Amino acid sequence: MNKLHKGWFTEFSPDDLEKMNGASDEEPTKVLKSDGQEMGGAWPGQAFSLQVKKVLFHEKSKYQDVLVFESTTYGNVLVLDGIVQATERDEFSYQEMLAHLPMFAHPDPKRVLIIGGGDGGILREVLKHESVEKVTMCEIDEMVIDVAKKFLPGMSCGFSHPKLDLFCGDGFEFLKNHKNEFDVIITDSSDPVGPAESLFGQSYYELLRDALKEDGILSSQGESVWLHLPLIAHLVAFNRKIFPAVTYAQSIVSTYPSGSMGYLICAKNANRDVTTPARTLTAEQIKALNLRFYNSEVHKAAFVLPQFVKNALE
Amino acid sequence: MNKLHKGWFTEFSPDDLEKMNGASDEEPTKVLKSDGQEMGGAWPGQAFSLQVKKVLFHEKSKYQDVLVFESTTYGNVLVLDGIVQATERDEFSYQEMLAHLPMFAHPDPKRVLIIGGGDGGILREVLKHESVEKVTMCEIDEMVIDVAKKFLPGMSCGFSHPKLDLFCGDGFEFLKNHKNEFDVIITDSSDPVGPAESLFGQSYYELLRDALKEDGILSSQGESVWLHLPLIAHLVAFNRKIFPAVTYAQSIVSTYPSGSMGYLICAKNANRDVTTPARTLTAEQIKALNLRFYNSEVHKAAFVLPQFVKNALE
């Protein structure tokens, strides 16, 4: 079975795909990891497909397989290592939540660091905040930025912005040289399979804490409550040793596996309640900022977790 | 292309499936409908697959194609006319929200009517409320009840309960003979393609209003904000002429198309605020009732809608 087959792209779980491509049914090796611990298969036994109108780009970068196709009903779609990262139709929900939960939880974010986020969607949202003086972005894979500029213009519109400092390199290494510098840090990574694996371990989060200012807030892609609860519980548990305030939010993103996405939001200041916006928005402001998913009520509601998630994280 | 193929079941949009099975690329006829109006294809250009361990049952009833299979990672799965209705792994999220939003919004629900719900999941949740004196259930397709009893024991456990009055027949016809009788009515229907089409029109909702007592509350399966926003806006708009209080809630359900599900909640009493539970639950009560998704905070948060949905429904 192929990922591209008879006019459809199918996103299988990495472990299922390995079984299909390999000769044996042995234990899969491509599983989600954190701190070297295996957190189970990614989403075995299920798959999501999008109908392909035209393949626009398909190459292997130094780090991963990069595919962009035009779909019949979701606009252009960015796929890394067989996993959908963004579609033009629903990307706003993920970008707005991952970016604005920490940004609006902060009273006055001036210096922002984005790790990953090569498609530019998080950058676009961060630049909506007038308080921002400089956005630093550290993306490991330049090819992702290049294809976003070419095929995802609505997402990559911020790459020419004068407030942007762009570095192509490893986020983990970058952080070692930056201490007490940022008001908000956003980790917009792919899953912990491949180049992003180091972004799901305790030592990475210790570097993030040190790179934040005293009132700094962190936001990280936090996987799906339906699929990755052990991994999420592990992330929350070790971060409670690193940050005085650790919270988890979730919202709907149609084309991610299981249709939901979580956000790990941590604050360095114990008195900062990130579940309530420090700055609320009027209807006029929402319109002016072209917010399609986020509003001040959505901010608070995102931290209300289904009972089974609450149980797992307590 | 088949729905069952090489060990996987794939849920295509009904219109895509018709195209694949037919010889032509003509306009599909299987689209979501309300009041005879076509509301667009169901979810063209996307598909969701589950890996099949074993097909347990596959027959055509008088009304629809009924399939039950054991999946590799989602337990047993009920499929009607090619659409996943419930999997043992995530069914609780849908059942608890569709049932408990109206049930806990009501201060003292004694008489409850379920229309559809042949798998028994809604019945199981309704029976958790001690105030309930009688549950009437009207399911059109007896075969659904029979396969649920056999293959979905965790969902169908309420069918032998002494408080249950079970009718096998058409919900629309049933309502014509019941006026001012129920505290809560729950419509647990499949999509408006096939036997459930009549349950998405204005005349159905007028019958529901008349069957409710003066302080009665209605809950209906309300489709997905990602896929069916025109249909949802239409349902909300015509119900505003029928009920003094019309609200919409949504939550995550992993195996429904796009991973989200909406709930249309209407009250006959203008002063009833259904977005706030009339009865709140303690942690002990949540445990005793075996609630895995619903709690009193989840109730309120479900009515907070993403901005694009808010815009569409205002």
Automatic annotation (TrEMBL), chains A, B:
<keyword id="KW-0808">Transferase</keyword>
<dbReference type="Pfam" id="PF17284">
    <property type="entry name" value="Spermine_synt_N"/>
</dbReference>
<dbReference type="InterPro" id="IPR029063">
    <property type="entry name" value="SAM-dependent_MTases_sf"/>
</dbReference>
<dbReference type="GO" id="GO:0004766">
    <property type="term" value="F:spermidine synthase activity"/>
</dbReference>
<keyword id="KW-0620">Polyamine biosynthesis</keyword>
<dbReference type="InterPro" id="IPR035246">
    <property type="entry name" value="Spermidine_synt_N"/>
</dbReference>
<feature type="domain" description="PABS">
    <location>
        <begin position="6"/>
        <end position="268"/>
    </location>
</feature>
<feature type="active site" description="Proton acceptor">
    <location>
        <position position="188"/>
    </location>
</feature>
<dbReference type="InterPro" id="IPR037163">
    <property type="entry name" value="Spermidine_synt_N_sf"/>
</dbReference>
<comment type="similarity">
    <text>Belongs to the spermidine/spermine synthase family.</text>
</comment>
<dbReference type="Pfam" id="PF01564">
    <property type="entry name" value="Spermine_synth"/>
</dbReference>
<dbReference type="InterPro" id="IPR030668">
    <property type="entry name" value="Spermi_synthase_euk"/>
</dbReference>
<dbReference type="InterPro" id="IPR030374">
    <property type="entry name" value="PABS"/>
</dbReference>
<protein>
    <submittedName>
        <fullName>PABS domain-containing protein</fullName>
        <ecNumber>2.5.1.16</ecNumber>
    </submittedName>
</protein>
<dbReference type="InterPro" id="IPR001045">
    <property type="entry name" value="Spermi_synthase"/>
</dbReference>
<dbReference type="InterPro" id="IPR030373">
    <property type="entry name" value="PABS_CS"/>
</dbReference>
<feature type="region of interest" description="Disordered">
    <location>
        <begin position="17"/>
        <end position="36"/>
    </location>
</feature>
<dbReference type="GO" id="GO:0006596">
    <property type="term" value="P:polyamine biosynthetic process"/>
</dbReference>
<feature type="compositionally biased region" description="Basic and acidic residues">
    <location>
        <begin position="27"/>
        <end position="36"/>
    </location>
</feature>
